[in-house]
């Protein structure tokens, strides 16, 4: 594939484009490095006082749709004296050429070297992106270790869900932000602006100190970790008097005040999601014990139905997308989801705009919602997540749904015209047995039989998708042991045999799974401490890149690196992964406050072991998780009593010039 060259590309100040362009015909998908998407912003360099490079540490096709990066990109570029550009992980073929020709890590917007920016913000959705972070730092010409950097280097700030335990990358990042980024990046920008206006007093150390004093930016260099003889952490304490003992998460309470993205990026190359996505609420109180996102994003904050309607209208008009994703951790739980879906379906009746709820709870989906989603005749995929195969294991994980609920819900979808649904489960959950996993096969068989009976058709399919359980910080399962990969793989083999035992049913059931090896490494990284940083570095030095991609991931590379590095600290891979923690152990992230009370999390862990289900506090009295009193707030839900606006039906969307068809 050749790079389009019909229009001469303007070269920005300090652009690497003249050196990069000749390399692009030699790599796969060169279009992903070109920039110039609809929605992209290129601002003049010199007038900007504060300059951000924002990165999602994965390939363009995964990183560009990332909602968090798009929001921060737009929020920052709205400031008149601030500039933000994007960078993504480069594929190994381009990396090799960049190293050979001296081309540094660059932004796709104006192809400026990342090292020239004041701040390098990296958003992590998964810990398996850590090796890509190290690669980007090194390609940028920035010292790998934060301790070696000077005022000439950007301040590297980690964010995203994985930043709630940034200890494994503490040696490589200068700071981490816990929680929502909209207001946090503005505060950081203001601090950098003021520091630069004063002539950069005290150098890099003073700037980092000012960030740390906010009590919501974690600067690892200002904290020391002491260890006990058996390898456990004794304490994590500040090494200077003017930084806080605990760092608190940021929470944006009024989502209606932040209706972003207003101008979504429309990709030039194929990406994993091509839709206009609206986050309809943040937070979740369902209390699924494995779910870090549900725990760390509390309290629930709903975006109003009128704001959602306005965002959809403006986002579609700008982008030309044909699909609207109503995003949240459990979208069907929005208190006005029925009116929202019916209003949007009415608004776009007769157009080719489709609606989707990417996260759909089994017990929240109903026939009315199904009909609204399919009103325009386009049926996007439906995924339901029972998570556990047996009633018993669903009590352990607090996923309160019965087999009858699931079958009733899926039959509703089939009778409303869907012919395929996806069922998502996890393997390796605490207290799990072979029998718990084998019940997934029984459930899948029942789904097919019920669907055929309800529709009178044999054209009914479901896909069973299995992910490996990974214990995450700030969840009740943060103390849990992990199963070894061979146990997970053995259970998956038994499950596949059970699904196919009845051939007439088995041929209608797809089976997709992730084996146990990547999950174990993700577990090492999710609950690791600073000593794990040496493992990450060794893996990267040995060629580790794109560890979230099965074709690039090497389990043996991680095992070998852990065996080389960790014994020097008196620990090993099993110590971090298959070992259960006790209630008195100091966890690596205890000094980072997600708002959740550790005693409450421990009690919920004990409730899990006794198979006790916890109610959703959105609709029941408070059960003292700690978030609301700690943040002096409360759950925000409707109904507001308002209807979707504008009410005028759209008879056809005009696509903007350059938008994808």
Automatic annotation (TrEMBL):
Highest taxon of the lineage: Bacteria
CDD domains found in the cross-reference section: Radical_SAM (cd01335)
A Pfam family annotated for this UniProt entry: Radical_SAM_N2
Residue stretches making up the Radical SAM core domain: 270-512
SUPFAM superfamilies the UniProt entry points to: Radical SAM enzymes
Any one GO molecular-function label of the UniProt entry: iron-sulfur cluster binding
InterPro entries hit by this protein: CHP03960_rSAM, Elp3/MiaA/NifB-like_rSAM, Radical_SAM_N2, rSAM, rSAM_horseshoe, rSAM_sf
Name assigned to this protein: B12-binding domain-containing radical SAM protein
Organism: Micromonospora endophytica
